[in-house]
Design brief:
single chain; about 290 residues; alpha/beta; seven-stranded mixed sheet; two-stranded antiparallel sheet; 10 helices; 9 strands; about 40% helix; about 15% strand
Length: about 290
């Protein structure tokens, strides 16, 4: 056996020992996004565990914020969602300083044109029209385009005699658009009223947070109003109310559990059961067929 062969074998042996030796992980060795921190209990949760658990913390059961498209995938039958008005976006009609630039950055970051995605879909085999808001786009604030897209979705549902399901999340009206944003409260509310007057079903689902002009308009006009656990539901902020009435509010004030107790909503539905709940409601509306 020549010396070169012995040397190669020795090197191979060293390599095998190095490869099989347990390594101590350092922060540099751990890829990004392997863990996510719960904003409620502050525990670090493996991202894959969250995905399998519908982005709900397995420790405290607090739901994480998810995108509109993730929510659509969770509740609709695979391959049935068809988007409407995908290219509709807001314009800077008021020429608010920096608004156009911020819109462009947000569009690029989220891959969305606006804070709501609308379309038709099937849930447990039942056809419906959906509008799903996304808090990652300007905190789900209601712009003129958001109001227009939701109104068009409702009007399409009315025309086709389909149920409409709206997942609401918002920080309120978009201040950069001024009165054009506030006008959407009346427009969406009128569309919801016409839809209901013709005997069509409207279901709204309140997610965290649902506040301001959205909570004061279409979000509270569903025939059936559902909410996710722990969602913030209200109009004005807690500090504004306390400073106005000069009283200390309960700790759970404006939570989904609080407003359910007061009769403001119909039911709290955990995220993992939302598709089943919506499917049941749609089946009942169709007479069980």
């Amino acid at each position: 056996m020549d010396s070169s062969f012995k040397e190669r074998r020795h090197r191979l042996s060293i390599f095998r020992q190095w490869r099989t030796k347990p390594k101590k992980e350092t922060a540099r060795d751990i890829p990004d996004n392997v863990f996510m921190t719960c904003t409620n209990c502050h525990e670090s949760i493996p991202t894959m565990d969250l995905i399998h658990n519908y982005y709900v913390c397995p420790k405290c059961h607090h739901p994480f914020r998810i995108t509109a498209r993730e929510r659509i995938r969770e509740v609709t039958d695979a391959g049935t969602f068809k988007e409407m008005d995908a290219k509709l976006e807001s314009n800077d009609e008021q020429h608010f300083p920096g608004y156009r630039e911020k819109l462009d950055r947000t569009m690029q970051k989220t891959g969305m044109k606006e804070a709501v995605i609308t379309g038709t879909a099937k849930i447990a085999g039942h056809r419906c029209v959906m509008a799903v808001m996304d808090a990652n786009f300007f905190m789900g604030s209601m712009s003129s385009a958001v109001g227009e897209k939701i109104t068009r979705a409702i009007e399409y549902a009315t025309k086709k005699k389909l149920p409409v399901i709206i997942f609401a999340t918002s920080g309120g009206a978009r201040m950069q658009e001024g009165i054009l944003s506030l006008m959407q409260m009346a427009k969406t509310s009128a569309a919801m009223n016409r839809h209901r007057e013709r005997g069509n079903l409207a279901i709204t689902v309140l997610t965290h947070p649902t506040t301001g002009g959205v909570s004061a308009s279409f979000a509270m006009l569903g025939d059936i109003i559902l909410a996710e656990p722990y969602a913030l539901v209200g109009f004005a902020g807690r500090r504004v109310i306390e400073n106005t009435i000069h009283e200390t509010l309960p700790d759970n004030f404006q939570s989904a559990e609080f407003v359910l107790e007061k009769g403001f909503i119909d039911r709290i539905v955990p995220r993992e059961k939302m598709k089943q709940e919506l499917g049941t409601l749609l089946a009942l509306h169709e007479g069980g067929h």
